[in-house]
C-alpha cells in the first residue's frame, strides 16, 4: 500500500467536519453537471480518508457514493471518447476521475473491510473499464489524463494488497490486454504503478501460465525489456527475480522468444541474483541445466572476438554472460552442483579453452597473452573489452566442475586439459589472475587423483617462459641445477628508455 498520512491538527478538523456533515456534499457530486465545487468537496473526502481512524470507521454508504460517482464518471469519459462531450468539460471530468480514484485508493490502505466493500460495489470492474477508455482518448499525453491513469492504477494496487478475491478480479478482468497497453505508456510513473499491480497479483500458478498464451508471454517479455529501458523502476526487477525466476519452464520459453539484446538483459538479471550469494536461491536447478545447454550450443560465437571489428557482437556477449553465470552457479552453491554432471559441459569448456588459446597464439587479438599493464582496465569497466578474463573464467569453470568429482578430473586428463591449463600460468593483462585460477584448477584436478598426479610429475621443464614483465621490473629468472632463481638485473641488462 502507498504511504498516505496527514500530520497535524488539520486532520482532526477534517475528520470532525466529515463526520458531522455525514458526507452530504459527496452526494451532490453526482449532480447532472459537474463543477469545481464538486471537485473541492471530493478533495475533502480524499484528505479525510488519509486518517486511519476515519478510514476504519467510514460508513459504507460513503463508499457507495464514491462508487456511484465513479460509475457516472465512467459514462462521462465514454462521451468524451466519442466526442459527444463539450471540450471544456473534459479536463474537469478527468480531474474528478483522478480525485475519485485517490479517495478510493486512500480508503483501501491497510483496511480489508473497505477493500471488500468497494469490490462488492463493482469498483474493480468499473475502474478497469475507465482505464481502458482513458487509454483510447486522443489527448493521450495530457497531464489530467496521465493523472487519472496513475491514480486508477494505484487504486487497483491498494485494493489488491493482501486480498485474494480482489487480486483474482483484477487478473480475470484486466489481464493481459489492459496491462499490455498500460506497460506501453510513455509515462514512467504509470508503468511503475502497473508493475506494482502485476507484482502484487502474481503467484506461482499465474506465473506458470504466462508461457501458455502468446499475449501473456508478451507481458513477461515486456516486463523484462523494461528492466533495461527503465532501470530506475524497481518493480520490474522484483517481478522477474521474485516471480519469473521461480518457473524454469517460463524462463526457457522467454529465452527462446527473445532477441539477443533481451537475452543479455535476462542473463544480467540472473547473474545479479546469483551475486547476492543467498543460499536459498529462487532459481531452480532446471534453469541452471538449461543455461548449461545454451552455453554448449552457442559458445563458439565468442570466437568472433578474435576479429577487431566485433566488440559489440551480442551473441558473443551472451556467451560471456553464460560463462559468468555457470562460474557462479558451480562455486559451491549446493542447489546447482548437479551441473557438474551435465552431459558434455566439461568437454565443451576444455575444447573452447583450446580454441581460444590457439587463436591467441596464431595472431595478436584479445585472446593473446599480453603484458600491457600501463593500459590495464579491470573487467566490467566501460572501456574494458567484453572478452577480458574470458580464458581465466573458462579455467575457473573447469576447476569448479572437477571439485570433488573424480570422473571429471579423469576427463580433463584424457582431453589433454592439464597441460593446457599449465600453459596458461603466465601473467596476462588480458586475463587478470589467470595464473591464480590455473593454480587453483590444477590443485583441484590433482586432488586425490593419483593418475593426474603422476602425469604432472612426469612433465619435463622446457626452460624459462617469457620473463619480459619481470625484466621491466628489474629482475631476471636464472635456471640453476633444475631450479629457477629470481635475480636482480645487472646494469648492462637493464632495459634502456627510448
Looking at this protein, list some descriptive labels.
498 residues; mainly alpha; two-stranded antiparallel sheet; elongated; disordered N terminus
Structure explained in plain terms:
This protein is mostly helical and 498 residues long. Helix content is 62%, strand content 2%. The protein contains 26 helices and 2 strands. The chain has helices spanning 10-21, 24-28, 36-48, 52-57, 60-82, 90-107, 112-120, 123-136, 143-160, 164-174, 177-183, 188-201, 204-209, 214-229, 234-242, 248-257, 260-275, 285-298, 314-329, 345-362, 390-402, 406-414, 417-422, 434-446, 450-457, 468-472, and strands at 475-480, 483-488. Strands 1-2 form a two-stranded antiparallel ribbon. Helix 5 runs parallel beside helix 8 (123-136), helix 11 (177-183) runs parallel beside helix 14 and helix 18 (285-298) packs across helix 19 (314-329). Residues 1-24 have low confidence and may be disordered.
